[in-house]
Amino acid sequence: MSPRVAVLGAGVAGLVAAYELVGLGYDVDVYEASPRIGGRIHTHRFGSGRSSPYVELGAMRIPTKHRHTMRYIDELNLADRVRPFRSFLSDANNYLSAESGPVRLSEAMPALLQALRERLPGSVYREASLQFAAFLTLTVEAVAPVRMRGQLVGNVMLTGMLVDRLDGMDLRPYLPEQGRPARLGEFFIDNPGFRSFLPLGLDGFIDDILTETSSDLVRLDGGMDALPRRLADALAGAVHVNHKVVELRVRERDVVVELVHADRTIVRRYAYALCAIPFSALRHLRLYDFDPDKLDIIRETEYCSATKVAFYCREPFWLDEGISGGASYTGGGIRQTYYPDRGSALLASYTIGEEADQLGRMSLADRHEYVRQQLAKVHPRILEPGMIRSAVSLAWGQDEWTRGGCAVRWGKDVGQIVEEQELASTPQNHLFFAGEHCSKNPAWIEGAIESALDAVDRIDADVTGSYPVRRSA
């Protein structure tokens, strides 16, 4: 008889792990501290119905190359909901923030070149080199957190060296066209050695930038929360929300889990447990009999904050400005603004890192008003009386259930990254671990799924005495 397994956390990693364990014949109990499932997939609806306008306060896009995620979408009968995700600067009428004020992407090149020439006075470079460098700098400025931006945007010497190197390359296949950004992804694929020219931290972040700005992204029409909901439905009542884990005690042959539910303490013993709680939250629990190395990685794994602010508007006023989707670089303290393909629920601000923390520390009223005033510099109509019907936001760095947006390994070499991943995923006797922080794809649904499959294989191998299947490979 297979032992009953406790799964701690009902984000994607926990739900996938439970789904796969049930498929292997195990009984599971899934415990989620918050009132909802999904973890950092969080679809907010401005209304009670499934057809109400909605925004994604968490994960909002899936790279089609993420094969595990796409497989579960197909397996859970969600393939008919897959739609293209229109990314940053995918619409010629999207705005860019410039020193002189907002400018359309289709009209941006003169402003970008002027700004770059002002940073490199007296230099003579090819127009092609300047154009490509301008878009690379713009993308880093728009997407990266403050510390990453400073490595390039604020470094005149490095910028000059970068343009100088570009001057000796054939850039014609990658140059921006009228109303379209430069083909950065293709450039870095075709010229992998160019990465070594960038500072280590920025080199590591380039992958995130290229993925976020790719044209090969999709979303789930009707809300990304369909994925965790389908997984939970398949578990037939095994998921228990509002059950907060407060203590884990690892023993030789079992794991003791202490929970709080409805102000009542519950202590349960399991032969096996799988922890899918983010380390940023796990480090605040009482942990007993963990190895020192495991405690170190739990305490030291770095998480990047993320904050999203959304407005449900009276009307989609951006359509009158010729914008039908995609995202603008709105700059300031709000960074990126995403427009829906239909409807009037606007993701007014998406920030990461230091700027996300600054917004996150504000009261809700102050945060929403700040974003409204900043957005008005690009879209003055947002200030019209009654334009905003409702506002919502989520600061993941301050959220008590996650205490961080996602795990990051920026600025680390390959050896450090592999070591951290191995330490994060290493079990403690019969306590196993999953989550994007345990994977080679942190910050993505794919990483959460990949880690869950790996943990399930490890548990099943330990129970049966067989060699792990390694379905996550």
Describe this structure in words.
The protein is of the alpha+beta class and 473 residues long. The chain folds into three domains: 5-45 and 226-301 and 412-464, FAD/NAD(P)-binding domain, CATH 3.50.50; 97-212, no CATH class; 306-395, Alpha-Beta Complex (Polyamine Oxidase, Chain A, domain 2). 34% of the residues lie in helices and 21% in strands. The protein has helices spanning 12-23, 67-75, 109-119, 127-143, 146-152, 156-166, 184-190, 200-212, 226-234, 279-282, 292-300, 354-360, 364-375, 414-425, 445-464; strands spanning 5-8, 28-31, 43-45, 54-56, 62-63, 82-84, 95-96, 103-104, 217-220, 239-240, 244-250, 255-261, 264-270, 272-275, 286-288, 303-304, 306-313, 327-331, 335-338, 345-352, 388-395, 406-407, 431-433. It has a five-stranded parallel beta sheet, with helices on one face. It has a five-stranded antiparallel beta sheet with strand order 18-19-20-17-21, covered by helices on one side. A four-stranded mixed beta sheet has the order 13-12-11-15, with no helix packed on it. The two termini are 28 Å apart.
Protein topology:
Layout: E1 5-8, H1 12-23, E2 28-31, E3 43-45, E4 54-56, E5 62-63, H2 67-75, E6 82-84, E7 95-96, E8 103-104, H3 109-119, H4 127-143, H5 146-152, H6 156-166, H7 184-190, H8 200-212, E9 217-220, H9 226-234, E10 239-240, E11 244-250, E12 255-261, E13 264-270, E14 272-275, H10 279-282, E15 286-288, H11 292-300, E16 303-304, E17 306-313, E18 327-331, E19 335-338, E20 345-352, H12 354-360, H13 364-375, E21 388-395, E22 406-407, H14 414-425, E23 431-433, H15 445-464
Parallel strand pairs: 1-2, 1-14, 2-10, 11-15, 14-23
Antiparallel strand pairs: 3-4, 5-9, 6-9, 7-8, 11-12, 12-13, 16-22, 17-20, 17-21, 18-19, 19-20
Helix pairs in contact: 1-9, 1-15, 3-4, 4-6
